Amino acid sequence: MYQNTGVKILAMAKVLAVLMMIISIVSGIATGLFTGGSEGFFIGLTVIAIGCLFAWLSNLVLAGFGELVANTHEMLNIMKSGSAGYNQMQHAPYYYPPSANAASYAAPMQPPTASYAPPKPRPSVKSNTTYNKGWVCKHCDSNNQAGVIQCKNCGNYK
Q1: Beta bridge partners of 144
Q2: Are 51 and 23 in contact (CB under 8 A)?
Q3: Crossing angle for the helix pair 84-91 and 37-81, nearest 10 degrees?
Q4: Cβ burial, residue 19 (10 Å; 0-12/13-18/19+)
Q5: What are the pLDDT digits (tens) for 108-158?
Q6: pTM of this prediction?
Q7: Scanning 69, 80, 106, 153, which has its CA 20 to 30 A from the CA of 21?
């Protein structure tokens, strides 16, 4: 029942779109006949047009969801199977799909060079502990007085 759900959603979207269009055409003809005159004719055409447009738009949304489910299921199967494409994607710094021409892609970004500075080490005092009758902010590691509940440097609370 839950196998190939994406394909089933796509098929259901097509069937529902056809049914909704048939219903809108029948209701448009019925509206035109029961209303009578030229006014009824235009009301019937409007019902048909709006009904078909609604059927088409709802088909697009439902088919898009079905496509999303199908593609997600396919990606999950690739990841579970441990195929070469997934292993390359997981372990290589730059991944190009096996079927694609690598030259057609833009040059990949290079990692930062000498301008990269590692983050500053945190002080050895544990955050949010008493420090010389005060406390250390757990956000910016600045020393604050004991009676203060808000950090003087960054404004975070104790």
Answers
A1: 135
A2: yes
A3: 80
A4: exposed
A5: 555 556 666 667 766 555 545 555 578 888 888 888 888 888 888 888 887
A6: 0.45
A7: 69
